[in-house]
Amino acid sequence: MNLKNYLRRELAWLRAKWLFMLCDLVVLAAAFMLAYLLRFDFDIPELRFPAIKLQLPYVLAIQLAALILTGVYTIIWRYIGIIELKAFVVAAFTSALPLLALRVLLPDSYLGWRVPFSVIVMTTFLGFGSVLGTRVLRRAWYERRFVRRNGRRLATVHRRPVLLIGAGRAGVMTAKEIINRGNMDIVIRGFVDDDPEKQGSAIHRIRVVGTIADLPRLVKELKIDHVIIAIAQATREQFQLILDTCEKIPVKARIIPGLYEILQEKVQISRIRDVQVEDLLGREPVNLNEEEMGRFLQGKSVMVTGAGGSIGSELSRQVARFRPSKLLLVERAEFALFNIHHELRSLFPNLNLVPLVADIGDERRMTNIFRNYRPQVVIHAAAHKHVPMMELNSVEAVKNNILGTRCVGELAGRYGAQAFVLISTDKAVRPTSVMGACKRVAELVIQNLNEKHRTRYVAVRFGNVIGSSGSVIPIFREQIRRGGPITVTHPDMTRYFMTIPEASQLVLQAGAMAEGGEIFVLDMGAPVRILDIARQTIMLSGLKPDEDIKIAFTGIRPGEKLFEELEVTGENMLKTRHPKIFIGNIHSLAAPRVDEALEWLEIYSHGEDGEQDLRRLLAELAAEHPTELSEPPISQVERLSYSTGA
Questions:
Q1: 20 to 30 A Cα–Cα from 199, which one of 235, 344, 403, 552?
Q2: Which of 200, 191, 75 is nearest to 138 (CA)?
Q3: 398, 605 contact by CB (below 8 A)
């Protein structure tokens, strides 16, 4: 930003805030005079007035400067709260320190300029306390006016009594939002919380009236319409207990927005919704090192491949939060790219977004992108991921997941990217599918590239993400909508699950921690039976399993495992400074062997009859402890015929 634009912006800001500053100057001046009156018992000697006239202008100037420098005028006064109090405290001390220094350091010849110690202390407390007080009064007036206006509108509307389950942070935020809005058609009759220390206490004048075990009695006595679950860190067992209790009463249970939104303090009461099966999976909150991630992303040119996919789009949202200098959205599906670009442009209007329609396997196109934009961080999420589909299209899986990764990874090193993060999968552990084997070989590729370039190459493994395209929950909902049956491959099949925001945040955290060459493994928690998810999806739809909706078992599909593996608790896993991120002590291959294998994979993927050889080579590469690669089934002379299909 040039100096002219900067000055224009600052002047516009000052014009918008001049009335607030004028009011604060009046309050601060009054506090200064009151401090002198208190200092002399409301009888100021006449000889003091010349000194007061000298002192008042520079005292006000120092105090106003302190308010500006500490960001007080950037706070929206109607939302003033405990967090914003810090700015006023810092401003008070910032203004007092120079006044105390002048009092001590000025010589006697400047006696009139020296403000008495007692006046400095009193004017600081009185002045900044009054400035803060005016804002608190403004907020109280606004809320009272807002509630009255909306209360009159809802005077004839029946307000449904509800109970909030959870008197913690999420519950308090929910109650506060409902009270402040004043236009909700619900009224809170109390909190329900199992913490014995909270029983009988009141939050925002709303009492904690009992525990979850008391719900049947409370619903009957208070004539509760429905309960709202407001627990930010609820476990799977807690959710199941609450829902089982509500089902027995019976009373409808609803829930506030997801944990990620709670932790970001973005709870919107208008988005209270019915409980969904995703809520029952009970993931604990992710604690991020925001400072470390800021150093990793802020001010950098960041590329996300597969930016229109479920993981890639969430990674793009998370990256945008850390204000990169440029965010390159690489996606070959035009409509998916349009959607994420449109969304981010609305959420982050000042962010430099560059939507790029491109196939990661198109080396010429990707070379032009790297040459023109020089990304410093590359997050590689583009991949074919559906296991049964890739069993039928193994050549395309190799082209996209392996050769595409090599293309983007090689360009990242050639054009000086600082970091390259590959999104991998738990299916790369002892793979039984083409997709899993391709991801394992992609890990070998980035380990190989890490030895050749200064770029830090890392891979991050995790399991299924809730709500991603093609995942079981959306499929189950669609099957229920059609009247069933729900299809489950095997009654004992289990999978690891995590939310898309959680997975994306941990991927970026792992990337920030990386030194190069690591394969990070995310802690996915306990595996979940797919059959249990199917039953819960049916029940949360208001139906009964096996009665209203049948469950049919179809058998394990080609390439699928009965259970996935992450080995988080195994001896081969090394702990990191983040409790949910581990480093896998996973073998790599010598660079010549990887290069030779990639050459053969490319030949097989372009030949007409190379699929069998391609699968054999994938199996050898993805083996847990591979030996030397077997002799290729074709001679050097026959390479050309494979590559041309002759």
A1: 235
A2: 75
A3: yes
Q: Token digits for 168?
A: 């913690």
Cβ atoms of 230 and 204 within 8 Å: the answer is no
Kindly report, residue by residue over 390-413, the tens digit of the pLDDT.
888 888 999 999 999 999 999 999
Angle at 440 between CA 438 and CA 443, to 5 degrees: 110
Helix, strand, coil abundance in the chain, percent, nearest 5: 55, 15, 30
- Top CATH class of 290-464+497-525+565-588 equals alpha beta
Per residue in 338-382, pLDDT (tens digit) is: 999 999 999 898 899 999 999 999 999 999 999 999 999 999 999
Q: Tell the residue number behind the tokens 């959306």, with chain if given.
A: 474
Among residues 115, 124, 72, the alpha carbon closest in space to that of 96 is found at 124
User: Which backbone phi and psi does 161 adopt, to 5 degrees?
Assistant: -75, 135
- Amino acid 281 reads L
Please give the model's pTM, rounded to 2 decimal places: 0.60
Q: Which residues contact 189 (CB under 8 A, 6 or more apart)?
A: 161, 162, 163, 209, 222, 224
DSSP secondary structure letters along 169-222: HHHHHHHHHHHHH---SEEEEEEE---GGGTT-EETTEEEEE-GGGHHHHHHHT
Q: How far is CA 192 from CA 250, 255, 528, in A?
A: 16, 14, 28
- Residue 306's pLDDT is 93
In the chain, CATH 3.40.50.720 sits at 160-275, 290-464+497-525+565-588
Q: Determine the distance from the C-alpha atom of residue 546 to the mean position of all C-alpha atoms in its chain, rounded to a whole number.
A: 37
Q: In this structure, are residues 554 and 489 in contact, taking their beta carbons and an 8 Å threshold?
A: yes
Structure tokens at 633: 């089934």
Neighbours of 482 (CB within 10 A): 9
Which tokens go with 615?
Answer: 């699968």
The per-residue pLDDT for 422 is: 93
HSE, CB side, 13 Å, CA atoms: give it for residue 170.
24
pLDDT band at 43 (very low <50, low <70, confident <90, very high): confident
| Alpha-carbon span 434 to 391, nearest angstrom | 6
User: With the CA atoms of 472, 475, 480 and 481 taken in that order, what torsion angle do they form, in degrees rounded to the nearest 10?
Assistant: 150
Whole-angstrom Cα distance, residue 364 to residue 158?
Answer: 65
Class in CATH terms, 160-275 = alpha beta
Neighbours of 540 (CB within 10 A): 19
Taking alpha carbons only, the member of 353, 358, 410, 364 closest to residue 382 is: 358
